[in-house]
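Hi support team,

I've been running sequence recovery on a batch of backbones for a student project. Most finish fine, but this one hangs at about 90% for roughly twenty minutes before it completes. I'm not sure whether the input is malformed or the queue is just slow. I've pasted the structure tokens below so you can try to reproduce it. Let me know if you need the job ID as well.

Thanks,
M.K.
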């Protein structure tokens, strides 16, 4: 049995092991959830009898569940954007916005190019299925190096508009880690090659192997 927590109503939900990687609706509030032992996410799906509400009459069981979920959140959550890292927001097929520590803040991708999000708040979507990818960078003798990647699921509502109150505020809209689909991986791979000099990413074989794979369940590498 896999247990996930609904980000809307807070219910702890049990799902059959064979549903791993699929999306089902919370039987209590109807919110869509990614069935994963590490996190819940918000993507459209149909209701399914394979997902059930576990018993809640045991205080001991509830306390144990809360402890496990607390541990997961500590591992997966980030309180603020890493100042040495690079961030990408994606929808299902394309890049929506990027961030790096250059003083410009979040930049929205438009047909006219990249524009500052904080000056174009009216163009921020209020809802949608978005993922945030963290490219983990460090400094070495060669200079800046790409070390790893982590993908996060953002809340379906008011995630991107959260940056109106500050760049780091988007971290509060993370609901857990998530996988990436083939199109998203292609977009990340393309952006890495366009954004950084070759010496930054040429040794990051683990990242490019991840981005070339068809695995949509692994949430990151490095």
């Amino acid at each position: 049995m896999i247990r996930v927590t609904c980000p809307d109503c807070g219910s702890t939900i049990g799902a059959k092991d064979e549903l791993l990687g699929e999306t089902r609706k919370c039987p209590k509030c109807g919110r869509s959830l990614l069935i994963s032992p590490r996190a819940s996410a918000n993507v459209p799906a149909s209701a399914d009898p394979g997902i059930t509400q576990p018993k809640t009459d045991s205080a001991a069981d509830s306390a144990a569940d809360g402890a496990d979920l607390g541990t997961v959140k500590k591992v997966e959550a980030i309180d603020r954007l890493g100042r040495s890292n690079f961030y990408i927001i994606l929808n299902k097929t394309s890049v929506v916005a990027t961030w790096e520590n250059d003083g410009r803040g979040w930049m929205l991708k438009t047909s006219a190019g990249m524009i500052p999000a904080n000056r174009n708040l009216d163009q921020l979507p209020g809802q949608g299925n978005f993922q945030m990818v963290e490219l983990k960078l460090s400094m070495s003798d060669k200079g800046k190096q790409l070390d790893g990647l982590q993908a996060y699921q953002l809340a379906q509502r008011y995630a991107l508009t959260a940056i109106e109150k500050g760049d780091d505020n988007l971290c509060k809209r993370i609901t857990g880690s998530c996988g990436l689909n083939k199109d998203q991986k292609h977009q990340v791979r393309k952006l890495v090659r366009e954004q950084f000099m070759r010496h930054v990413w040429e040794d990051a074989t683990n990242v490019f192997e991840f981005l070339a794979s068809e695995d949509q369940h692994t949430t990151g590498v490095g």
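--
Follow-up from support: It reproduced on our side and the slowdown came from queue contention, not your input. The CA atoms of residues 118 and 164 lie 6 Å apart. No action needed from you.
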